[in-house]
Amino acid sequence: MTSSFNAIVPMACVTAAGIAAMVAEAFRDPGERMPIAGLGAVGLIGAAIATVLLWNHDTSSFGVVVADNFGLFVTGILIVVGLLTLAFSGPTIERERLPGGEYYALMLFALAGMMLMATATDLVVIFLALEVLSLAVYVLTGIRRDSPASAEAALKYFLLGAFSSAFFLYGIALTYGLAGSTRLDRIGSLIAAQALSPTPMQLLALGLLLVGFAFKVSAVPFHMWTPDAYEGAPPAVTGFMSTGVKAAAFAAFVRVFLAAFDPLQHEWWIVLWLIAAATMIVGTVVGVAQSSVKRMLAYSSIAHGGYLLVALLSANDVGKGAVLFYLLAYAVTNLGAFGVIAVLEHEDAANDHVRDYAGLADEHPVLAALMTVFLLSLGGFPPLAGFIAKWYVFSAAVKAGYTGLAIIGVLTSVVSVFFYLRIVVMMYMTPREAPVRVPSLPRVAGLALVVSAILVFYLGILPTRVLDWAAASISTIF
Amino acid sequence: MPFPILTSLIALPIAGALLLLFVGRDEQHAPLARRIALVVSVLVFAETLLLWSRFNASSADFQFVERHAWIPAFGISYYVGVDGISLFLLVLTGFLTPLAFLGSWESVHSKTRAFCIVILLLESAMIGVFVSLDLFLFYVFWDAMLIPMYFLIGIWGYDRRIYAAVKFILYTMAGSVLMLLAILSLAYLQKEAAGSYSFDLLRLYELDIAPSQQFWFFAAFALAFAIKVPLFPFHTWLPDAHVEAPTAGSVILAGVLLKMGTYGLIRFAFPLFPQAAAFFAPKLAVLAVIGIIYGALVAMVQPDMKKLVAYSSVSHLGFVVLGIAAMNTQGVQGAVYQMLNHGVSTGGLFLIVGMLSDRRHTRLISEYGGLKSVMPRLVAVFLIVTLSSIGLPGLNGFVGEFLILLGAFRWDPTMTAFAASGVILSAAYMLWMFQRVNYGPVEHEKNLRLPDLQPREWAVIGPIVAAAILMGVLPNLFLKPIEPSVIRLVNQVQQGQRSPTRIQAGLGPR
Fold this sequence. Notes:
The complex is a heterodimer.
Chain A: H1 3-6, H2 9-26, H3 36-54, E1 59-61, E2 65-67, H4 69-96, H5 100-119, H6 123-141, H7 148-179, H8 184-193, H9 200-216, H10 225-232, H11 235-260, H12 265-288, H13 293-314, H14 317-344, H15 360-363, H16 365-379, H17 385-400, H18 403-429, H19 443-461, H20 464-475
Antiparallel strand pairs in A: 1-2
Chain B: H1 5-20, H2 30-54, E1 63-71, E2 76-82, H3 84-103, H4 112-131, H5 135-144, H6 146-156, H7 161-194, H8 201-205, H9 211-228, H10 237-244, H11 247-272, H12 274-300, H13 305-326, H14 329-360, H15 371-374, H16 376-390, H17 396-411, H18 413-438, H19 455-473, H20 475-498
Antiparallel strand pairs in B: 1-2
Helix pairs in contact in B: 1-2, 1-4, 2-3, 2-4, 3-4, 3-11, 3-14, 3-19, 3-20, 4-5, 4-6, 4-11, 5-7, 6-7, 7-9, 7-10, 9-11, 9-12, 10-13, 11-12, 11-13, 11-14, 11-20, 12-13, 12-18, 12-20, 13-14, 13-17, 13-18, 14-16, 14-17, 14-19, 14-20, 16-18, 16-19, 17-18, 17-19, 19-20
């Protein structure tokens, strides 16, 4: 009986830390500084230990949460995301005088929701997890209450998000009506039995679920909220959203589409093909036209969602492993980039325009070098994590016979290099007109940036171990 | 275990770059940074010479092979080795890098430490490209090399440096990503044929690929290499990159980077896909001949010396591609030799143009004239390097061009006749430029009191002149080690073209 709780220990640790953060905030004297972020870190480390202990045990709780290696790998990614976000949040919270307890509590609850989403094997639980993480992230987006941009972003995100949740829920309802169950394995076996002649109802249910997922991973044409939300939120939150939410949503996406709805692949592949192609193209082409760094990275994250969709669509062993590796590589790299943005933000200067990066290499060479590493990795240059990740994705596509998609993928990644390099050009090759105002580098955030950069190099030069883990993870569920 | 000489060649410049991180960033530490970089690059050169001396010239096999599993799940390994074709490209890389440092000793005034780091990293990546025997590893070095070159042009270049740097990196990337897909597809074909992934070049050589597939593979590889060479009509990035790059950048770009394209054709595109190569070779040759004549004609009308030399590269590399397309022993051997010659003579020309522009801060031919009476020594070496570029017998350029034309004539006399006109054209534009710069009266007052060659500049240009003469007088010193590998390669390609199911060529140990 006790074993049935084991699978939820990681998210329980994070939830407990979240509650502790809330309580600590309640007992905090005004103006008192408390190491609330430390609480979060303790919770996340607890979750990490639990994850390591659960590895290879395939534990299941209540029949709806399964701590298989796939879910645990994503949980691991989420722990990395959480720890790095905690480190990058400090400067923003201090500068903007945000309520620290609330901020960290929301972040930890969102993380718990993400972990649940990654390990859930029941559509209702997936929906529950989706709502837990979404609500927390909506609030985080608008946590700068006095900033109109932040409020606008949160409202847009919330309205569209609620809309898409409704789609998702309707899809679940239809699926339940068809299968008489919301458990993924039962849905899968039922659909497999009728796969040759899918009913319109099945296709409708499939389509509605697809819309829900496409929104969460900001795939074109459901990406409209992304640039606004990413621009309005504080950079640490944006980094968190663009990596954590994506990781959790893709984990559930893979489970639902490659486990339950896999027999219908001949129906959904063409839709997903078009979505993936459109996502890569729109993300990069529109990204070229941006002058705000956060907006640019928002479009870049849309494009990266497209690459992940290519891996998902390929649906072979390589593709499934590629989703996991890509999520990790992307999480480390993108969080690093947003970490730099977070550190650079200044009380009187947002430092968000591409032009604000002019001459950064002279003023702050270490920060500029780190940013360059992250941007080049996003662009997919060896020997960095982004290169191996993209190579893995395109291998999967080539193996699955989606050569056209692979060609679109490599060409869009060349286009994306153009806008990543714009920042590098600014930092290294353009002299600054006005004296730059770079805040001093906070120690924790600086350390986290260096750790991210080391991870980016590690995943790029010695990816073998992590690739093996990713391969081992997917073998447990498919 | 024998000493891993190739790995140490790749690692030494990186180690030097890391060492430089400990030197202060301020410009007051610049002399120290320069010295460290120079010492490291000279050590690398010495090591390439050591490699040459240990190289078994009578063997066609890959030597100094090192192999370690890297990503075993995909059959990717760290697999390096050197044969006659790549040996001298390594020596050339080692030879030109210290000269590039010395040549920009006084012209780089800002961020000197970063400059040194970037060039050392570039050297590492270039060496990596030439020694990789694993396609994945090759691609990693091939792509990684773009970043330091991008910074080199973008930070230390001239006025339109950013435009040139971005154009350079986007052009080359656009070409190479399709090659990446082709490499991936090859590995999957290998898995289907042999049961496991492999990026091992020697095993992929033996892979049986249907001619229709070969067509696409060859097209993807050849596009990447044609942009790098650059072959007409993919050459438009080159004049921009050359003109805007600092002297060191131009020297390395012309001297080594362009050779990666022709090296790729020899090492990868032709032997991997021999049947497609037979189909594409005449087309490549046509483009090469167009490039030879077009490059020469455009070079003739350039007012800017650097641009003139840049277009002359388009013309000269056209010869190299023609030799490769001929795919016989003389043609390929001449191509490999001409790659070295071009590195030496064009590197030398860029260094001399750099010296002139250090003195006068202009590269326009019309700003000079009559330099012979002002700087007799500089003009003397300028003449030698010019003649070497033209291909005067007794100097290096002659041997390579002659072999290429010989090989090409055996293959396609008409094409060769057109190409041969490029020899005359190159004499015309080079000598005309030389005459306008150096002869006649001194027309600009500023030119009257220019200093002649400094000791440092002797150290820069002396080795170039020595190499040009040595390679012209004793070509066998170089051609002997090249020959066995070239013969094996040509046999391998021809066998692949003859038989529908390919016979295993006599490949080295694996």
